[in-house]
Amino acid sequence: MIRPFYTPEEGSAKRSAPQAVPQERAKEKLALAIPTLREAENLPGLLGHLRAVLDPLEIPYEILVVDDDSRDGTEEIVSAIAAEDPRVRLLVRKGERGLSGAILYGWRHTDAAILGVMDADLQHPPEVLPHLLSAIEAGSDLAIGSRYIEGGRLGKWNPIRKFLSAAAVWATWPIQRAGIRAKDPMTGFFLIRRECINGIEFQPSGFKLLLEILVRARIRSVKEIPISFGLRAQGASKANFKVGWDYARLLARLYADRFGF
Fold it and tell me: Count of domains in the chain?
């Protein structure tokens, strides 16, 4: 079921404006969602790495591990880390699948003003997070870890996978809005301001949430930061025939919305 994205206070009145902070503006909170599916072995190192990158920034943040009921030890590992650091939280979905849905589920369970996502398979470099956050703090609505701009790399993909990825990106060009088109609308590593997506209905199936955000969210500016896409460590790939079918359906729906047919 598609449902609108809202803050945790959905349906209630807006919260009163925060009190002014003397001298210095309070830094906005970041919530980073990490969808997982049988990736328990990656999590201790990844969560430690993320905290080592984020702590020096001196910002309020939380890391939301959203697990699709993997039953591979993920719950035990994350719960143990969360007991030591409450900024790490575990959210388990029962009887549900879909990367986009997992991301949205995590975002609904936080009050952060800046929302983000990255994979748990160690293909996204945590060191890029400060650069993405700097882009948001500098005024961008959306900051993307991009494989397709200068300095970005796809990694050791075979020619067929590279061709399919390029074709998928090319197919998005007509439906992206002029002036804010992204060269890597398929990445799963990005930050966005919550205010840009509140109240918008997103497709929970599939794994290309960024594309739908680019087409349908209230975005005025996009910044792409180059990343080198790493090799998958442990975990199951989320790319399969069903995901491809979900992407085709999403693309068809976005084309219909964009051109009215």
Answer: 1
CATH label of the domain that carries residue 129: 3.90.550.10
Domain that holds residue 144: 27-231+244-253
In a domain, 237, yes or no: no
Task: Output the pTM of the full model.
Answer: 0.85
109: in domain: yes
Q: What is the pLDDT of residues 110-163, one digit of tens each?
A: 999 999 999 999 999 999 999 999 999 999 999 999 998 989 877 666 788 778
Using 70 as the pLDDT threshold, list the residues of the chain that sit under it: 1-25, 155-157, 230-243, 261
Q: Note the pLDDT tens digit of each residue in 6-16.
A: 666 554 444 34
Position 12 scores a pLDDT of 43
Sequence-distant contacts of 243-252: CB under 8 A, at least 24 apart = 243/99, 243/206, 243/207, 246/98, 246/203, 246/205, 246/206, 246/207, 247/168, 247/206, 247/207, 247/208, 249/203, 249/206, 250/203, 250/206, 250/208, 250/211, 250/212, 251/171, 251/172, 251/175, 251/211
Per-residue CA distances from 215 to 176, 185, 218 (Å) = 5, 10, 9
Residue 202 phi, psi dihedral angles, 5° rounding = -115, 150
